[in-house]
Amino acid sequence: MAQLGLKSGDVITEVNGARLHNPMQGFGLLHESMAAERVSVRVLRNGVEMPLAFSLGGPAVK
User: Fold this and answer.
1) Mind listing the pLDDT tens digit for each residue in 4-55?
2) DSSP code per residue over the chain
3) How far apart are CA 60 and CA 53, in angstroms?
4) Does domain 2-61 have CATH number 1.10.3720.10?
5) Cα(47)–Cα(11) distance, rounded to whole angstroms?
6) pTM assigned to the model
């Protein structure tokens, strides 16, 4: 997950515009996104929601 720009304690709140309501939904959306070239997520980090975007096979893009 560090390759994606995620840090310990981050909570993923959105994947490709789909708001997450439970952890299982998040795993499903992340799994589906693995076929995409680019994935965007929003994470809750230190009480602040922030966007992250990355290309699969490439470095994280902020």
Assistant:
1) 678 889 988 998 888 988 877 877 777 777 777 788 889 999 999 999 987 7
2) -GGGT--TT-EEEEETTEEPSSHHHHHHHHHHHTTSSEEEEEEEETTEEEEEEEETTS-EE-
3) 6
4) no
5) 10
6) 0.69
